[in-house]
Design brief:
By secondary structure, this protein is mostly beta strands. A six-stranded antiparallel beta sheet has the order 3-4-5-2-1-6. The protein has a six-stranded mixed beta sheet with strand order 10-9-8-7-12-11, with no helix packed on it. Helices cover about 5% and strands about 45% of the residues. The mean pLDDT is about 90. The chain has two helices and twelve strands.
Length: about 170
């Protein structure tokens, strides 16, 4: 079952680490900024199969979930290391100017002067700000996701326009 990669229309929001107790509960590592997605009555998916959350409680840095139809330690054991996913359409809307990582990966990066630098291959999170890792003809470029550099993001056009401040592209 679901270990590693979610279908493109789904996002991984958690990973089942191990059974918890003997009644089918599981210990879950949360992989989302929205732990409220694990509220009772919500659906999560394992290999695109829906499971209703019957209960959820925090335990240290993890959650303990009870999924409908998982009623024994044996059934819970079969879910060890499986990813919990939700459809992308089920994600909460973000405030204007904020984006999910999956929305930015692959966007073309262009300077205000019209020079195409490449595309966002990954995003690194640092204490101060995110850093876009751009792959292009000149190799890898690190672009700080700060207001002085990132001038616009257009998801429909698939582009991010940046101001190439001094020292950024050297």
């Amino acid at each position: 079952m679901g270990k590693g990669v979610a279908p493109p229309e789904f996002l991984i929001v958690g990973r089942i680490l191990a059974p918890w107790g003997i009644k089918g509960e599981v210990k879950v590592e949360v992989i989302t900024d929205f732990p409220e997605l694990f509220a009772p009555c919500n659906l999560v998916y394992l290999d695109s199969r829906p499971f209703e959350i019957e209960s959820c409680r925090p335990h240290k840095q993890f959650l303990v979930l009870k999924l409908a139809s998982v009623d024994s330690i044996e059934a819970a054991e079969k879910l060890r290391e499986c990813d919990l996913t939700i459809p992308r359409s089920g994600l909460p809307e973000l405030p204007e100017g904020q984006y999910y990582t999956f929305q930015l990966i692959g966007l073309d990066v262009v300077t205000t002067g019209g020079e195409r630098l490449g595309h966002i291959a990954d995003i690194m999170t640092t204490a101060g700000n995110d850093v876009y890792i751009v792959e292009g003809k000149c190799g890898e470029i690190l672009i700080p996701a700060i207001e002085d550099v990132v001038k616009s993001i257009d998801l429909k056009k698939g582009t991010i326009v940046i101001e190439a401040i001094e020292g950024l592209l050297d």
